[in-house]
Amino acid sequence: MIPPPPRVGRPLDTGVQAALLRATQDLLIEQGYERLTVDAVARRCGASKATIYRRWPGKLALVIAAATDLFPVPELPDTGDLRGDLLACGRAYLKEDGRSQRVLASLHTAARHDAALRTAAREALGSPVDRLFREVLDRAVVMGLISEDVDVRIVAEVFPGIAFHYAAALGLPVDEPLILRVVDHVLLPSLRRA
Q1: CATH number of the domain enclosing 124
Q2: b/e per residue, 14-39, with b = 16+ CB within 10 A?
Q3: pTM
């Protein structure tokens, strides 16, 4: 097996990368996606544009990386209990700081008019976390905890849809009381009815 060729140049400094992501988040909050520029991020960090372009091919990739940094994808929960697993999925949406919500709101606002941003944000931010519900429900069907007649695809979209509505439309955080209400009064009853 032939080893890959060595990287040319010095290794990327993770401290610089963290500063660039933080500056991008700040500018998203302060100015929004449309007015954010790679130049402004570079100036904010005292870095060159080349420093940014060595890491990301352009503004869209930089912004998605900055947002993704705030929303790490949790592992698939396995609490041994369907309710516990659904609560754990919902808790993946909990963000204690308002920063994450403000960055997300900025992206949602811009994504209404920018298809590339909408697609990239959905793939990087929405799909990985939303998928947790689908995988938990699919597993519950296989285990016989939910009837095969249940449309788990649509049930799996309920919590992410509510979370999106709270964050993007209402500007409200997803909190523990909301998670409990949706799991106990919407998801579990809809699974039992079927």
Answers
A1: 1.10.357.10
A2: eebbebbbbbbbbbbbeeebeebebe
A3: 0.76
